[in-house]
Write a structure and sequence with these properties.
The protein has helices spanning 16-25, 34-47, 59-69, 90-94, 113-125, 145-155, 206-216, 239-249, 252-269, 299-302, 306-315, 343-350, 362-375; strands spanning 52-56, 77-81, 98-102, 132-136, 159-162, 170-171, 174-175, 182-186, 199-203, 276-278, 286-287, 293-297, 338-339, 351-354. It is α/β, with parallel strands linked by helices. The protein has two domains: 16-251, Aspartate Aminotransferase, domain 2, CATH 3.40.640; 253-375, Aspartate Aminotransferase, domain 1 (Alpha-Beta Complex). It starts with 15 loop residues before the first helix and ends with a helix.
């Protein structure tokens, strides 16, 4: 059997070991230390805006804390992009709140402003104003920032910007992660950079960032003994993980360039294949890190379905995967309200994510090419 070609796998740059060794040598083997501080500083200067970053144990934890900081409690309603990874929506459940799912639009595959506004008006008419909007930059593609921000302002509902897949993406030269009232990042093993597992919360004030860290470290009041007046969480990033993160920051831009080359590779590969379109930016305002390269297949024109292609790749030990299955179609979420018109359903039915890692080789690309050419 040939080696497996993964959708997206960890790609170390070289300095990660140095930072991790330093942590051992100085005995900073704890969920705090110089690497945690250093990684936060690296992220802050990378994101450039006047922002404050708190390093956490996961992106999911960051979304959970964001909802808590925005005051979401039991019985509240939270608007959430339906087409996403379940981690965007699960924290709504942790709070005992109700998710209201919204369809995508066809251009960025993210939160549809039209359905978002319809939903807000309808929820208000039904007697409850939603507490927050969770918007996602799927596969690294910025959502329609201007439209979503305008709606958020008009109705005074804050945005949690799920930038888990979009570190390094930007819109109008402003970094993803900095648009929402609170942004979140993920450094899970398959993301554009990894700390083996980890995440971050991006805030616009130091007060908010410090409050997030307070909650993430068991909400200890200022006292010599252990004193608590809030429910706390154990959500801080470890100094070992942060060491990996510092090394990864040194190669982030290089890895984004390589992922974007993978996207160009697929554009060339499918150039002459009828019915297949490679997901790309709709204008120069958008810059995707192309965390994953995705295609949409019109099976009538192409003569094959996304599932046929997935199985053909699997035969060659090449991983591919359907696009995120919308949350409103998931057994756990199907009883909650949904506002939409089949865009996310169709994307799920006809889309496929292809191997996109920054560590793929020419040999890998040749294997992908011949597997696909056999079919088309
Ligand atoms: C990965 C991911 C998350 C969760 O991040 P973790 O670090 O894995 O908890 C949230 N939202 C989206 C869109 C993701 O892809």
């Amino acid at each position: 059997m040939k080696d497996k070609i993964w959708l997206s796998s960890p790609h170390m740059g070289g300095s990660e070991r140095k930072f991790v060794t330093e942590a051992f040598d100085t005995n900073w083997v704890a969920p705090l230390g110089p690497n945690v501080n250093g990684f936060e500083k690296d992220l802050e200067s990378y994101l450039k805006d006047d922002i404050y970053v708190g390093a956490l144990s996961s992106g999911t934890a960051a979304i959970h804390l964001a909802l808590i900081l925005l005051g979401v409690t039991a019985g509240d309603e939270v608007l959430c992009q339906s087409m996403t990874f379940s981690a965007s929506a699960n924290p709504i459940m942790y709070q005992g709140a109700t998710p209201i799912f919204i369809d995508s639009e066809t251009e960025t595959w993210n939160l549809c402003p039209v359905h978002l506004e319809t939903a807000i008006k309808d929820r208000i008419a039904k007697g409850k104003k939603p507490k927050a909007i969770i918007a996602v930059h799927l596969y690294g593609m910025p959502y329609k920032v201007d439209d979503i921000t305008a709606i958020s302002k008009e109705y005074d509902i804050p945005v949690v910007e799920d930038s888990a897949e979009a570190l390094g993406s930007h819109y109008d030269n402003k970094m993803c992660g900095t648009f929402g009232d609170i942004g979140i990042l993920s450094f899970n093993g398959n993301k554009i950079i990894t700390t083996s597992g980890g995440g971050a919360l991006v805030a616009h004030t130091k007060e908010l960032r410090d409050k997030a860290i307070f909650l993430a470290t068991q909400a200890r009041d200022n006292a010599p003994h252990y004193q608590h007046s809030h429910v706390g969480y154990n959500y801080r990033m470890s100094n070992i993980s942060a060491g990996i993160g510092r090394g990864q920051m040194e190669v982030l831009d290089k890895h984004i360039a390589l992922r974007r080359e993978m996207n160009v590779f697929y554009k060339d590969l499918f150039k002459n294949v009828k019915g297949v379109s490679v997901f790309s930016e709709i204008s120069n305002n958008y810059f995707s890190n192309h965390w994953l390269s995705c295609i949409k297949i019109d099976s009538k024109l192409a003569g094959f379905t996304s599932e046929t292609l997935r199985l053909a790749l699997e035969d060659e030990n090449i991983e591919s995967r359907p696009l995120w299955k919308p949350m409103h179609l998931q057994p756990i979420f199907e009883k909650f309200p949904y506002y939409g018109n089949n865009v996310s359903e169709n994307l799920f039915k006809n889309g496929l994510c292809l191997p996109s890692g920054s560590n793929l080789t020419d040999t890998d690309r040749d294997r992908i090419t011949s597997a696909i050419q056999k079919l088309s």
